Amino acid sequence: MSALGEFRTLSKSRGTRAGDGERRERNRDNKAAALFLAPWVLGLLGITIGPMIASLYLAFTDYNLLQDPQFTGLDNIRRMLSDERLAQSLQVTFVYVLVAVPLQLMVALALALLLDRGVRGLPLYRSVLYLPSLLGASVAIAVLWRLVFGAQGLVNAFLALFGIEGPGWVSDPDTALGTLIILHVWTFGAPMVIFLAGLRQIPRELYEAAATDGASRRRQLFSITLPLLSPIIFFNLVLGLIGSFQSFTQAFIVSGGTGGPSDSTLFFSLYLYQEGFTSFRMGYASALAWLLLLIIGAFTAVNFWASKYWVFYND
């Protein structure tokens, strides 16, 4: 064998040993990754995918939790078409989502713009304003809300100082949903913090250049801030819509679990709960759960489709 041949054989041998070492190291990394991912995969299969498949089957059955489910085909779907309380719950939920989410985003953005001006004690203000987001969905705040807006509550006590006799805000069908919308808007902390982080990413040179050209603050807001912040607005909008469609605790506590008065606070999730765990119509409740999933998916899809017309990614 020539010297060149021996060199090639030696290089090939070294390359093979190096390749085996890389493969062994890669296998060790893969095993470690699989070990760390195993709890998440088990949770996904056991807590999410498994119950979803089971609920999809139950959606086509008559099941009361005490007896075996009886397959009924499309009966639950047909029942939805003539269910007046379902129509009422959809109306209440759509009004709540379409009013509360934009209002909350506007309040959060306004406060973020105010805090972005470099006020003193920003971390303190940010923490205080974020606090309602942590407490807003809790049972304690819902109970407090019911007391504040009750017939003898704090709001009416304040109005009485001016000689105004307020109604029982949570017991009046015309105002009950409004109090829940105010509660939702009050939990503006999370989107506000995200807006504030987005505002800090906008290059200051753009504002300086605009000011040099004589652009007013209003023109800078609509020509620089909002376009560059549009991905953050879109992100908060999608999260807000998904979360609002699933709102439950506030309506359950304020209405005492009935959705009253006169079904004026009958959120879709509350009606689903009543059908499943109060009337024990678990099959019909499963069908309602899938309807809610489809509604949220449709709204999210429409938002992603519409985002190409107003979201600016600077690419």
Number of strands: 2
**Helix fraction by DSSP (H/I, runs of at least 4):** over 70%
Percent in strands: under 5%
Strand order of the largest sheet: 1-2
- Regarding CATH, which class of the largest domain? Mainly Alpha
Give, in order, the helices and strands: HEEHHHHHHHHHHHH
The CATH superfamily of the largest domain is identified as MetI-like
**Radius of gyration of CA atoms, rounded to a whole number:** 28 Å
- Briefly note the structural class of the backbone: mainly alpha
Low-confidence stretches: none
Report the principal-axis shape: flat
The end-to-end distance, rounded to whole angstroms, is 59 Å
Can you tell me the CATH topology of the largest domain? MetI-like fold
Number of continuous helical runs: 13
* Overall tally of structural domains: 2
Keywords: Cell membrane, Membrane, Transmembrane, Transmembrane helix, Transport
Membrane topology: Multi-pass membrane protein
Main location: membrane
InterPro entries: ABC_transporter_permease, MetI-like, MetI-like_sf
The gist of it:
With 315 residues, the protein is mainly α. The chain is built from 13 helices and two strands.
Written overview of the protein:
It is a multi-pass membrane protein. InterPro entries: ABC_transporter_permease, MetI-like, MetI-like_sf. Keywords: Cell membrane, Membrane, Transmembrane, Transmembrane helix, Transport. Its main location: membrane. This is Abc transporter permease. The structure is a single chain. By secondary structure, this protein is mainly α. The chain folds into 2 domains: 57 residues, no CATH class; 233 residues, MetI-like (MetI-like fold), CATH 1.10.3720. The protein has 13 helices and 2 strands, in the order αββαααααααααααα. A hairpin with a 7-residue loop joins strand 1 and strand 2. The radius of gyration is 28 Å and the shape is flat. It starts with a helix and ends in a 5-residue tail after the last helix.
